Amino acid sequence: MQKKVIVFSQIDADVLATLQAQYHVVVINPKMGDVNEQIRQHVVDADAMIGAGRLLNETNLAPAQKLKIISSVSVGYDNYDVAYLNQKKIWLSNTPHVLTETTADLAFTLLMSAARKVPSLDQWTKQGEWKRTVSGAQFGQEIFGKTLGIVGLGHIGEAIARRGFHGFNMNILYHNRREKLELAQPLNAQYRSLKDLLQQSDFVVVAVDLNAESKALINAEAFDLMQKHAVFVNISRGSVVDEQALIDALQQHKIFAAGLDVYQKEPLQQSPLFDLENVVTLPHIGSATAETRQKMVKLAYQNLVDALEDRVPRYLVNENFSS
Ligand code: NAP
């Protein structure tokens, strides 16, 4: 009997066509009604799921009887209840590495845009406000040679640090739960406690994964520790930051500016952030280039096929039930 695959978000058309040629494919469509209800209905006899950006947990997966794998088209996997998947013996895979450089590019885009007020000055120019040479209100923060603090020197954090070190002659500080000497040494990156990093950095970039210890890691106290001219960038997950504390810090000019790609609740529809000039808001586009998204979905496809053909997926993030 043909295996059944649920596609739970939009994916590349070629990969979808390849899946459809191999398996019985059901595509979840938000226009067809409640997404969780659709998943609950179809997951009963599904063998695999592929997609990104949905909360998958007991609420929608409980009816699953033979689900073998959820292949996530993402590196972060905080949307999934891993403990529940382990209990149900459902594999979870992700797509690391292929998005590292693109996401690091985006982090640097945010850093530079926020530091040099790019979006607000773009608007200012287009609105005809450029009537004489610019002055203090239009001035930004210097980047070259400054101190860049990375919270979470992992794959993406290291790629951001590399850009700062080689491209902008920056002094690199980092904070992780454990020192990462092999990543840090080539960049002359110095390990700091979170408190010291926040106090000493001109730019603070957060690149941790969301876990029990990183939830609300950057809170009101953290913003109080940062320098008044500091630029804060978050490309990790919204819940790593206490968003209200960030809004307060921006409103009260406790920091110079922020560049954000991720939020506590996405998509961000209404927010006090929209009224602030000193924040750059992007719609979670860290990995969103055509090339990278294609690499991610191909990797996710391979993880799925491996599982359905009884091989352990290369990028398994939970327990290996086959061993
Ligand atoms: P990674 O290689 O696992 O790096 C994450 C790093 O965070 C690790 O080095 C980890 O080190 C550190 N960390 C975790 N918890 C921490 C804590 N409480 N305090 C300090 N450091 C902590 O992952 P990655 O590939 O770089 O990706 C990082 C995250 O970026 C993903 O999980 C995802 O959420 C996010 N992301 C966002 C986008 C986007 O579109 N904006 C795109 C890709 C990824 P220790 O374990 O030693 O602490």
From TrEMBL:
Gene Ontology CC entries for this record: cytosol
Record PROSITE patterns: D_2_HYDROXYACID_DH_1
Molecular functions (GO terms): glyoxylate reductase (NADPH) activity; hydroxypyruvate reductase [NAD(P)H] activity; NAD binding
Domain D-isomer specific 2-hydroxyacid dehydrogenase NAD-binding: start-end pairs: 109-286
SUPFAM superfamilies associated with the record: Formate/glycerate dehydrogenase catalytic domain-like, NAD(P)-binding Rossmann-fold domains
Keywords: NAD, Oxidoreductase
Pfam families: 2-Hacid_dh, 2-Hacid_dh_C
Ranges where the D-isomer specific 2-hydroxyacid dehydrogenase catalytic domain occurs: 5-318
Family indicated by similarity: Belongs to the D-isomer specific 2-hydroxyacid dehydrogenase family.
This protein's name: D-glycerate dehydrogenase
Species assigned in the record: Acinetobacter piscicola
